[in-house]
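QUALITY CONTROL LOG
STEP: pairwise intake check
CHECKER ROLE: data steward
CRITERIA: each record must contain a sequence immediately followed by its structure tokens, with no blank fields

ENTRY 1 OF 2
RESULT FIELD BELOW
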Amino acid sequence: MSKKTLNAANLTALGADRLADLLIEVSQGSAEIKRRLRLELSHHLGPQELARDVRKRLASLRKSTSHVSWRKRPALVRDLATQAEMITDRIAPADAALGFDLLWDFTALAPMLYERVDDSRGEVGDVFRAARDHFAAIAPRAGLDPVALAERVWDAVRGNGYGEFDGIISLLAPALGDAGLAQLGLHVDAYEAAPLEGDAETHAALQFLRDLRSSGRGNYLADQKSGLIRATRQEIAEAQGDTDAYIAQYSDQDLTHPRIAADAAARLLAEGRAAEALDLLGPVDGQPGPEWDAVYIECLIAVGQVGAAQDHRWARFCATLDPEFLKDYLKLLPDFEDIEAEDRAKAHVLQHPNVHAALVFFLNWNDLISAARLVVARGHALNGDFYEILTPAADALRERHPLAAVICLRAMIDFALSKGRASRYGHAADHLMDCAALDGEIADYGLFQSHLRYVETLRSQHERKASFWGRLG
């Protein structure tokens, strides 16, 4: 390796004095580099000194009210990541209590920054979320008083407007212990018993709109309060391993929602209470989702109703064409029966009302013969706007099933031209050239136009789309 390569060994060879001079030189005009160097010097003096500098930086960030432009956002993200690193990797290992307090202050800073920066890319949020996860490792070593910690956690949960403290109860459960969790429960009980707090600054018109959008009672603040109570009690119950208390926070109506029923049943199933879980999964409102189906099938198998589980897999496959249902169904069938069942499944897919879902299934199943049969038989039903399906389908089919590939390509060409989608004309021209390249491999177009005839039809119908024809050379 060259001795000019920038690596630790080569730079060390320059000597401490030269490296110090270089660092001073490169830090000129860069507040970011200067800040980092000062943090490293503070760390060299001990965690208390480093903590003092971190607090100063957090205070500065807290006081600032200016908007952070997209140009300055990367520097802000690096700055936040540096402060988090100093807290979690430098201060907390030496002084867990000090690290915990600083991490709490750092996390509480999130709402102010979210209001000052466009975080549509999630970079600022990623820094805060990654830092927040360190509570789980730091808190048990910090020697915290469980009751006082419960007070702090409850204040954070109530003011969690931007989700900055999401999951904090679970993260701090070991540090809270039974006493802290019990104290937290008392705070929730007192909050529930207290009269509803109004927001004096909320304009009457805004409150009216909120009430219209709220569920059931038509009271936004009441819904918000009950939601907080339920979520907090559930997180406490989860930390205590009390599944019954967790599920008790759901109403009977809640448990008719497939997602909620699946969540509750999965918790019962994990405790070996499959029969109870199955009862809970009884009639649900709307179409069950994949989570509900998975738990329902597991429950059926756990109580010995394998046949019912298989029937449900088949029914869901027929409805959704989800290959995972079919795979699991076939796995439990004896030899030869699985082949017959697979053939029956393919026959069903070929006739499925949604030709695009059927095509996706055959592509995922790696059955190009059936995919080609489907395309040739039902090519007229293909929607050329579904290029995300038809493009990979044409690519997969072109080697051994050129006619089917051409039909997919033509569907996209026809859509682009008939709808006047000029932005797709370049792709459509490429597709037409692909059709020309595949023409020599197609001996019989059957009921479809030959390539020459198809091009003639395009010219007669779209002769004025010069920007398209111009791309063909």
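ENTRY 2 OF 2
RESULT FIELD BELOW
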Amino acid sequence: MANRLKGKVAIITGGVAGIGLGIAECYVREGAKVVVTANHNVDGGKAAVEKFGSDVSLFVQMDVATEEGWQKVIDATLEKFGKLDILVNNAGIGGVNGAIEDLSLADWQSVIDVNLTANFLGEKVAIKAMKETNDAKGSIINVSSVAGLVGLPFAPAYSASKGGSRMLTHATALNLAQRHVDIRVNSVHPGWIDTSIVPAAAKEQIIKSIPVGHMGKPEDIGEVCVYLGSDESHFANGAEFTVDGGQRA
């Protein structure tokens, strides 16, 4: 299938590696123009644009935890592509894990800033851009985690940030719907996805915990995001899409 996102413009944060790149690949395949971002992985951003083509893609280096970073990516998107249809809030960090009494405030805050505050900032500027350039229509997708559904005992900051993203999704979706603004907001909750951040030594044990017997691929999240970004999902709003091979079934 192709052209499910034809004519649409999407921003995908953290879109140059791992899950974000998988989403971007699916989006370009389906006809979307994509703006991918990263804070540190500039080489990955350049490689993504080279792969997709500069006519349908753009890389913007940004810090998702700052208003300045968000204004930068919105300005660049509108300058190149003229509008915004889809925002995928995908950028995230795992942070420092451990017993909560051993974590510093800085450890906590860095995760909250990137995983939750950035989603608030992204929603805020994306909604304004969609109102100004796309007749107040669009789709926002917050990539949360299964840790937003069930807490991870040694990742309190990560669990809190992903749970917060889940509830931010619900609140924003309801707020927009009750004001009759045709911008949908949904969350995606990946389980174990086979990316470079998964420790090789832990893979065998992780796979044993997954009912289907294998980890997911970045494209597995990308395909769900295609659906949520497309007009096919016009009645999906404020919903949670868990993609974890049955772990939370």
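INTAKE CHECK: passed for both entries
DESCRIPTIVE NOTE, ENTRY 2: The longest strand covers residues 182-190.
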